[in-house]
Every structure is written in C-alpha cells, then in structure tokens.
Amino acid sequence: MSMPFYVAPEQMMKDRADYARKGIARGRALIGTRFGGGVLLCAENPSKSLHKLSEIYDRIAFAGVGKYNEFDQLRVAGIRHADTKGYAYSRGDVDARGLANLYAQYLGQVFTHEVKPLEVEILVVELGEGSQESQLYHILYDGTVVDESNFSVLGGDSEAIGDRFGEMYREGWSSEEALRSAVSALSTNGHTLEVKDLEVAILEDTGARRSFRRVPAAEIARLMGSG
Amino acid sequence: MALPIFDVASDPGPSFFELVKRLGLVPDAPATAAAGLQGVPHGTTIAALRHASGVVMAGDRRATEGNLIANRTIEKVFPADRLSGVAIAGAAGPAVEMVRLFQVQLEHYEKVEGSLLSLEGKANQLAQMIRANLPMAMQGLAVVPLFAGWDTEQEQGRIFTYDVAGGRYEEVAYYATGSGGRDARATIKLGFSPEMNEPEAIRLAVKALFEAAQEDSATGGPDPVRGIYPVVAAIGPDGYRRVEDSELAEIATALTEELRSRGARQ
C-alpha cells in the first residue's frame, strides 16, 4: 500500500489560496459603492448577456467576479434562498446579513473540504431602509466576510483600483459622480473603459417594491457625459 | 437553512414550484378522502373582459361558508406580476396560497433567467399548479382561477380560464366564473363590444358583479354603508393598476340609481 506524501496543513492552505487568488486576479474587476440615494454597482464586463450583477431580492443585489459558472451558481442559490425565505416567513424577514453568512459557510466548506476552492469573490449588497445605512458584504474565496463601510472593489487588480477609488470617494455623492469615479478607477494602464465594456446597476428607492435596476447603455453614456 | 445548492442532475432550474417541492415546503395532499369538508371559506364571483387597449378583471368581496358569510372584505383579484393579474374562485385558503406561490414563481423565473416569461408561458405555469392541486380538488378544495394580462408580443390583452383538472382555455372576449358567474356572464354578454375603452369595460365589469349579487346570495354587492367595493384591476401596456374605490363608488351609485329607475321590483 502506498502512503500519500505528507503535506503540512499550512502549505496546503497556502497552495489553495494561491490557486484561488490567481484565478480571481485573471478576471476583470468591479466596484460597489454607496451614493446619496442608494448603492451603485459598476463592473467591467464586455458581455451583454453573461451578467456579473444581479437582483437577489427586493432590496438585495449580488455581484461576482472570477469563474462565471461558479459565481453564477452562487447567484442562483442566493435567489433561491431569498425567495424561499420570503415565501416561508415574510418579505421583510429576508436580509443580506443572513445570506452573506450562508455564502461564507459554503465557500469556507468548499475551501477546506473539496479538491478545488471556488475561484470567486462576491459582493452582497442591501439597500438601507429609512435612516439605516446600506450594507456591503464582501465575501472571499475562503469564506472570509468583510463588512465594507463605503465601497468595495473585487477581482482584477483590486488593491490598486481600491486606492485610486478611495481617493475620489466622497460621502453622499451623486450616482453620476460615483459612476464616473468608478469608471476612471477601473480604467488601468492608460486603457479607458467605454460604455460597451461596462455593466452598471443601481439599488435605490423609487417607491416600488423592487429596488434593483439595470442601467441601460444609453443612460450610462448620458451619466458619464454630463459634466 | 443551508444554501440551496443542488447537483446538476437534480437542479430545479428556474422553477420556484419545483424548488419548494425539493425543499419539502409543499404539504402533501391528505391520504384519506375527507369528502364534504366543512367550514372552509369559498370565494365566489370573478370576471374578466377584454377591451380595445387591454383587459379588466373584477371580483366581489364576499367569502362564504355554506350559507354563512365568512368574510366581507376578502380580495380575489391579485397582480401576478407587472403585466398580468390572477383572480380566484373556489376554496379561499388554497386559492390565496396558490396565488402567492404563482407570484413568487414568476418573479423567481425573471431573476434566475434574467428575462420575463411570455404571457403564454405564465398561463401554462398556472395550469401546472392547478393540475398539482387535483388531489385536493377531489376532496372539495377546488381552485378555479382566471388569468389575464398584456401580451407584449401580440400587443393585446388576453384572458385564460381553467378547469379544476388544470385544463387551460383562452377566451376571446370575456369570462366570469364562481357561484354568480352565470349571471355575471349574461350581463357582460348584453353590454359587451370589442371596441369598448377601459372606463367602459370597468363599468361593465362592476355592473356584472352588481347584477350577479342581485341573483346569487353568495356574491356580495357594493356596500356603501361599510365602504366595501369590488376589487377591479385594469391591465394594459403600462402594467397592472388597481382601480380606486372612489371611482368604483361613483359607478356603484350610478348603478343603484339605474336600478331605482327600473322600478326596483326586479
């Protein structure tokens, strides 16, 4: 009987983390940020049909970077969780914190127990009601949850993008300012992003039950052009 | 609750109904026949009619338990999604539950797939849910809804009716069902014209329920003393709109006046 080689647990975790990080860094980045009326999500995504941003529930949105099939599975699981919870209890009982914890548990479980960690980073956003602040939960490939206070950058060269965006961020700014800053932060190495490279969505109160809205290309162009 | 992640082979897809079955949230039909189940409230009369720029749906507000009034203010017309509505007659409990499930089903599909179901697709989904309710229907808890909405492909309003076994039929002009359905249908038949506009269709729908309430004890008429009026919904290209009570009160007053002018003997 052959014995497997001994690998130190530290080494094993490091290898897995490196593997996941490499996969995520290859993808394009996205930014989620608060603005005066809600939350803006802006992703570099040249595809018009394979979305990175999605509606989960009345006041909750999802954003993912990394391997498409892996974060899309998580997105669908989130919609399923939210819809069943709202159906079994009530719509008001569905919150982003509970969902973020479930994602964290699942990602942590896969990271330690499966052959391959998931090569994804996700962002769960909940629009604040009344005087409540909006919540942004950034969840990493190993199940780490970060409760971000103002904005969050996922994927790609997230540290450099985060530094650039952090310098521009202002409390209570408008969605136009937030979008323009996000686009300029996401544009790296002299390559300026155009409207066709962008996917933008907004969570804001408009009086309707569902607060998620995709921003169509024409409106992105208008928002970026004004001023 | 764990995160609902499924194997590729057992994935419920975009169907919320399949999902809740997998998760065990749909109660099994009782194994033994409880024929003649007593004390279950029943919803009564509902109607839908097409007009030139959409459809109108209406339902009275009464639920009955045998010969007693169980509820005076029950609602039987609901938005299914932004562009369609569903009205219910039959056992009120399972019917309201079916509507709740149907509403989530449509929204769930939209979010998972990223696109809206066609009106035909929605109508077929409802037929499947009624078919799944057949064991309960056999025991006296039948649910018979009406489904209507704006078809964005054909650019017209459409009406679908169902039988207890899940049979789905499209109506070209109007339909009414429930205990006062026959009387409501007769009234609509006499006043119907395909060129009607929305206000005329709303008036005719209210009149149909008003006349049904004259003949059928299980159908509730407008009740100005308590301020109870039927639920009427108008659906067109701009979506689902519930007609205001103030507008219905005016129509009800006019109908009462009309009845008085007839001599009020009939």
The number of helical runs of chain B is 7
Q: What would you report as the Rg of chain A, rounded to the nearest angstrom?
A: 18 Å
Order of helices and strands of chain B: HEEEEEEEHHHEEEEHHEEH
pLDDT averaged over residues of chain A:
92
The profile of the biggest β sheet of chain B is: 8 strands, antiparallel
Write down the overall mean pLDDT of chain B.
91
Strand/helix succession of chain A: HEEEEHHEEEEHHEEH
Overall geometric form of chain A? globular
Structural class of chain B: alpha+beta
How far is the first residue's CA from the last residue's CA of chain B?
A: 60 Å
Quick tags:
heterodimer; A: 227 residues; alpha+beta; globular; B: 266 residues; eight-stranded antiparallel β-sheet; 7 helices; 13 strands; 35% helix
Give a topology summary:
The complex is a heterodimer of chains A (227) and B (266).
Chain A lengths: L8 H18 L3 E6 L2 E7 L8 E5 L2 E7 L1 H21 L7 H18 L6 E7 L8 E5 L5 E4 L2 E4 L3 H11 L6 H12 L11 E7 L7 E3 L2 H9 L2
Antiparallel strand pairs in A: 1-2, 1-8, 2-9, 3-4, 4-5, 5-6, 6-7, 9-10
Helix pairs in contact in A: 4-5
Chain B lengths: L15 H7 L19 E2 L2 E6 L2 E6 L3 E3 L2 E4 L5 E5 L2 E8 H22 L5 H14 L1 H5 L4 E9 L4 E7 L5 E4 L2 E4 L3 H11 L6 H18 L15 E6 L2 E4 L2 H17 L5
Antiparallel strand pairs in B: 1-4, 1-7, 2-3, 2-11, 3-12, 4-5, 6-7, 7-8, 8-9, 9-10, 12-13
Helix pairs in contact in B: 5-6, 6-7
Concise synopsis of the structure shown:
Chain A is an alpha+beta fold and 227 residues long. Chain A has helices spanning 9-26, 68-88, 96-113, 158-168, 175-186, 217-225, and strands at residues 30-35, 38-44, 53-57, 60-66, 120-126, 135-139, 145-148, 151-154, 198-204, 212-214.
